[in-house]
UniProtKB/TrEMBL annotation, chains A, B:
<dbReference type="Pfam" id="PF00152">
    <property type="entry name" value="tRNA-synt_2"/>
</dbReference>
<comment type="similarity">
    <text>Belongs to the class-II aminoacyl-tRNA synthetase family. Type 1 subfamily.</text>
</comment>
<dbReference type="InterPro" id="IPR004524">
    <property type="entry name" value="Asp-tRNA-ligase_1"/>
</dbReference>
<keyword id="KW-0436">Ligase</keyword>
<keyword id="KW-0030">Aminoacyl-tRNA synthetase</keyword>
<dbReference type="InterPro" id="IPR006195">
    <property type="entry name" value="aa-tRNA-synth_II"/>
</dbReference>
<dbReference type="InterPro" id="IPR004365">
    <property type="entry name" value="NA-bd_OB_tRNA"/>
</dbReference>
<dbReference type="InterPro" id="IPR004364">
    <property type="entry name" value="Aa-tRNA-synt_II"/>
</dbReference>
<dbReference type="InterPro" id="IPR029351">
    <property type="entry name" value="GAD_dom"/>
</dbReference>
<dbReference type="Pfam" id="PF02938">
    <property type="entry name" value="GAD"/>
</dbReference>
<dbReference type="Pfam" id="PF01336">
    <property type="entry name" value="tRNA_anti-codon"/>
</dbReference>
<dbReference type="InterPro" id="IPR004115">
    <property type="entry name" value="GAD-like_sf"/>
</dbReference>
<feature type="domain" description="Aminoacyl-transfer RNA synthetases class-II family profile">
    <location>
        <begin position="221"/>
        <end position="540"/>
    </location>
</feature>
<dbReference type="GO" id="GO:0005739">
    <property type="term" value="C:mitochondrion"/>
</dbReference>
<dbReference type="InterPro" id="IPR047089">
    <property type="entry name" value="Asp-tRNA-ligase_1_N"/>
</dbReference>
<dbReference type="GO" id="GO:0006422">
    <property type="term" value="P:aspartyl-tRNA aminoacylation"/>
</dbReference>
<keyword id="KW-0067">ATP-binding</keyword>
Length: 580, 580
């Protein structure tokens, strides 16, 4: 309730009107205090629980209130309230009274009072529940999803969605400018058959192309809380339908976008989650890979990767010599402070082969302490994804062992910049693909390299990382038609015909422009420390992309498919199964 | 610009930061006044037009500024600005100067000043345009759609989208509460093939079921600016993708929802469109049909339908007698004030057959004046759709003839209530279908009729009508599982299995609840008096549901369809065509 007012731009009076007018309750279940004692009130809510016909706890979206059931024999109200099943919806009218001395509950905002029921009405009775609605009750994901509307009654989920709403509203306040329309774009989209035989729409994977066209349309600023759709098959903690804060601006540079996002997050940050410091630190893609072995470093703790090639170069250890003999060969290490607590073995082959001098050099290079553990990786690597993964794994082990490395209340934002513009294709390293998307502009100082050695070109792409999670990404876009055509045809060897409308648009006076998109679901789940983004979405799909409540996706009849000129091509075995 | 500040909740300072920081311009093209004279400024914008190398007009999202091109021979700036093609994007740095006496342009906000260019840069040159970007230039719908990003540069479309953004932001301010997630629901949806053979998702036609489940989930209040999808094939001025302000509340009644919407519209109404008076007038469905021959009456003008059966009953005119001989037979009429101006014929068969007395009764009943024209409809009708259509047609004719009946600046909101809950099916009048949707609750005073004579049951559905257009509709929902099951199975004879999850949800303590949805596109187009909703959507589809710019829907390869286990079933002739 408090948060609602904080986040709202309405006067307190307007808030009251909004919550109490339009409905016949006098108060919410979260509101009554000693100051209300003596008042006649009408509450609506759910029966949280009921004890021996003496009292019950009434719950609504705003809180809990204890209701005393009248005990006189003839009372219909007693009869009614004593027999109301848990989670039934009731109206209770009564008088606010102070709780008897010693029976106050300081943990409960309404714990000083109780409502002596006079009249009551069952608005809807509840049948036996598939599970108890208490946060601590364990229930299967599938069951929770099937009865999502019951799970939504848990205080945890309600708090998550309330916070999400508040944050988004504050973001809108900050960005309130042109409300663009979000639309079809991107690749890997869901297909939507049209009534024209053989023709399909696609669902927006992101409004990328359209927000660029808005800038070309002279709209200067665009932001949207955009619903996007991505078909990734079965991927844990991904949603076929997700939400992003989508932003595009004209006449802007990378620093401009970064300052905007920092201001946006500061403005919309929940008060009770502490404040965040801006500007956010920045790190190049190369640094990130070298020091953390990943392009989304968790900077809440150290254990950085150190190159100890020079220390060991002299030593005559076979695997070291072997590794260093390669052009990009090196020896990298991470030092795990107090690593012993998670690993009993104290022996180290390495020391056997190292002289005193080398050993102390090593200790210095890694700033080793008593009980530390050092992990080495020897080989031909520019990146250190292996040590990067080990670093995170070690952190988990240490925390499992009782140490705290990562303060759960700390929020470490980080910009990762200077990504390569192109990467060699996994299947055929001689060919190049865009590191992000083909509309990303090259780094100004690398522009000429685009024509000579594209592999060396850095991009004007930037990622926003929070506690080791990518929560946003964007770029300054190519606004020159020739450059865009060169990238598509000459570098990526793609058929630019598909994007001809965008390239043509660039020829009609496209302003320099850039933008960014924040993954709202991920961001909110990190703020509330939820294990899954499904905990911050009202009606998520299961990790297999299923809606277990409405049972989607579902079979449709051939008749329903007719207007769309499509038919199902059943895998053979299914055909057989259907036959028998 | 002014509107942006009005609508924003940010301080003026924050607004300035938002518009000027992040980019390197010092001012927008709509901002400079005499007070700025002498200041050195940097503007970014498009070349609106350029005259004889003397001056040009620079345009951005915020306005127009006149730029004087330096005339000294050696100036590179002169060279550059004189040759910049129209609609090229340029940066101009120069000094604000007063315009010479007599050359001020009072019609132009920046008309008192001009900017003497010192340096300039072409950020992007523009090739020959497919059409001139001026509101008064006529261009085909198809061409405008194909180059939507150019059409968006027109001041009219930019104003429309700016107003839309402002209104929506004000609506959010008013409603800011729980930001629910909007999802799959409804019938007649677009289908989305999934990777499971034969299984399809459907796109949300409206979040109807899910917002009800949110209430059952105890979330109390929900609103969303929801993107919805409806496959209506080719229908003029409809969009396969549209936007609605979607609202649901618990413990609310019809009056509560109506007051909320009146407050919402008053709060978000654009200042320069005058104020609107609340509460809105209300009319029953029966009255609307009897007096206006439609369930969405345009109440900006009179010409109501009058039943003159009793006046003519005595007369021995054959078609009158004939009509009145039927059970529901009646004679209805509308009187068109000054109808003569649109209809030269002054004769009237009727007068021949009517005596003096009847004639004067008729004149009195219809309050006829000199030059009025009366149209009659005789027959067996409860409704009067024919006269309703004639009423609107007559209004068009009169206005075409120069009279004003409907003030284009007037906004007449009207609630239409007490709709029937069920209607006889067109194809088989003995069967019933929902007048709106099967979740609509019966009118409290008709609840018992539901079991005895469903055809007589009025519903708790309400429509919001603006100037003869339906801009919203909603209802109090059924919250009793038994009642919902009875309606589906016994009245509608539908298979309730499809909705079993909703019915089951009602059994778990569903609160009394109701809601409404406003058609945002239609509402905004009426406010800005746009001929089509396509004028208030950034990237609309054509009236045939096509995206002429991105060329959607488009063909996809059988390979692309494989993961979705579908194939195109080509109509024969197309198969043939493909063969040759």
């Amino acid at each position: 309730e408090g948060k609602l007012i904080i986040f709202s731009v309405l006067s307190a009076k307007a808030i009251r009107d909004y919550i109490y007018t339009f409905v016949s309750r006098t108060n919410t279940c979260g509101e009554l205090r000693s100051a209300h004692v003596g008042q006649k009130v009408t509450l609506y809510g759910w029966v949280q629980y009921q004890r021996q016909g003496l009292f019950l706890v009434l719950r609504d979206f705003h809180g809990l209130t204890q209701v005393i059931i009248p005990q006189d024999e003839v009372s219909a109200t007693k009869e009614l309230l004593s027999n109301a099943p848990v989670e039934s919806v009731v109206r209770v009218t009564g008088t606010v009274s102070p709780r008897p001395l010693g029976q106050q509950n300081p943990k409960m905002p309404t714990g000083d009072i109780e409502v002596k029921a006079e009249t009551a009405e069952i608005l809807n009775s509840c049948k036996k529940l598939p599970f108890e609605i208490k946060d601590f009750i364990k229930k299967s994901e599938a069951l929770r999803m099937q009865y999502r509307y019951l799970d939504l009654r848990s205080s945890r989920l309600q708090a998550n969605l309330r916070l999400r709403s508040g944050v988004v509203m504050r973001m809108r306040e900050y960005l309130c400018n042109l409300h663009g329309e979000g639309l079809l774009a991107g690749a890997k989209e869901f297909l939507v058959p049209s009534r024209e035989a053989g023709k399909f729409y696609s669902l927006p994977q992101s409004p990328q192309q359209f927000k660029q066209l808005l800038m070309i349309g002279g709209l200067d600023r665009y932001f949207q809380v955009a619903r996007c759709y991505r078909d990734e098959g079965s991927r844990p903690d991904r949603q076929p339908e997700f939400t992003q804060i989508d932003i595009e601006m004209s006449f802007v540079d990378q620093a401009g976008i970064q300052r905007l996002i920092e201001g946006l997050l500061q403005h919309s940050w929940p008060e009770d989650r502490g404040s965040i410091v801006t500007p956010f630190p920045s790190m190049t893609y190369e640094e990130a890979l070298a020091e953390y072995g990943t392009d989304k470093p968790d900077t809440r703790f150290g254990m950085k990767i150190v190159d100890i090639s020079d220390v060991l170069r002299g030593s005559n250890i076979h695997f070291v010599q072997n590794a260093l003999s390669y052009p990009h060969g090196s020896i990298r290490a991470i030092c795990i402070p107090q690593g012993m607590v998670s690993d009993a073995r104290t022996s180290s082959l390495l020391t056997k082969f190292l002289g005193e001098k080398k050993q102390s050099e090593l200790i210095q290079a890694l700033n080793m302490q008593e009980d530390d553990v050092v992990l080495l990786a020897a080989g031909e690597h520019k990146q250190c994804s292996a040590l990067g993964a080990l670093r995170l794994l070690s952190a988990d082990l240490l925390e499992a062992a009782g140490l705290t490395l990562r303060d759960p209340t700390a929020f470490h934002f980080l910009w990762v910049v200077d990504f390569p513009l192109f990467l060699p294709k996994a299947e055929n390293p001689t060919e190049l693909e865009s590191a992000h998307h083909p509309f990303t502009a090259p780094h100004p100082s690398d522009a000429s390299l685009l024509y000579s050695d594209p592999t060396k070109v850095r991009s004007q792409h930037y990622d926003l990382v929070l506690n080791g999670n990518e929560v946003g990404g964007g770029s300054i876009r190519i606004h020159s038609a020739e450059q865009q055509r060169f990238v598509l045809e000459k570098v990526l060897k793609e058929d630019s015909e598909v994007l001809s409308h965008l390239i043509e648009a660039l020829e009609f006076g496209a302003p320099p422009h850039g933008g960014i998109a924040l993954g709202l679901d991920r961001l909110i789940s990190l703020i509330v420390d939820a294990p899954s983004i499904r905990d911050v979405i009202a009606f998520p799909k299961s990790f297999r992309g299923r809606d277990l409540m409405g049972n989607a996706p579902d079979y449709v009849t051939p008749e329903e498919l007719e207007p769309y000129h499509i038919q199902v091509s059943w895998p053979l075995e299914e055909k057989e199964a259907k036959k028998n």
